[in-house]
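Format notes (please read before filing issues)

Several people have asked whether sequences and structure tokens are stored in separate files. They are not. Every record keeps both together, in the order shown below: the sequence lines, then the token lines. Line labels are part of the format and must not be stripped during preprocessing.
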Amino acid sequence: MTTQDERSIARDRMRFIKNSQSARLCYLGILFDVLYFVNIYKSDVGTYYYNVKIGASIVYNLVFLLAAFLASEGVKNYKKEFSYILFVISALQIVRIFIIPMQAHNATTLVNEVAVSVMNNGQFYRVVIYLVLSAVALLAAAIINLQKSNAIAEHLKSIGETA
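Then the structure lines:
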């Protein structure tokens, strides 16, 4: 059996096997986002976190979780469109670093009339790492799904079928 035959068989098998690699990477991205979410919202530093920005962040986080889970289901079936959704929410994870974590890290607030840092260095680095790992996992899921969906579409075209 030649390498070409083996590649053709592997691509033909893709029609019947789910893209679990991309889906698992989406779940990993969701997990890191949940760790970020818990780490930020468990903080109790005076009244710093009681504002509209945090409310919007919570709503965004819920939308993110729903979109990432929906994308994980879409990439299981090699749907290329969901890769683009993953690219967008991956980029938004990076943008989030500059909103709450960066601003909280640079802020101080009064607690019992003593100025305290809202987010210490340890927590700041931890939440940034969570957001970056979430973005990287989602980006990897998008790239893998894009490659696999293109490969299966090409294979189906070569055997005369349509997706």
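For reference, the curators noted about this record: The chain has a mean pLDDT of 89. The two ends are 27 Å apart (CA to CA).
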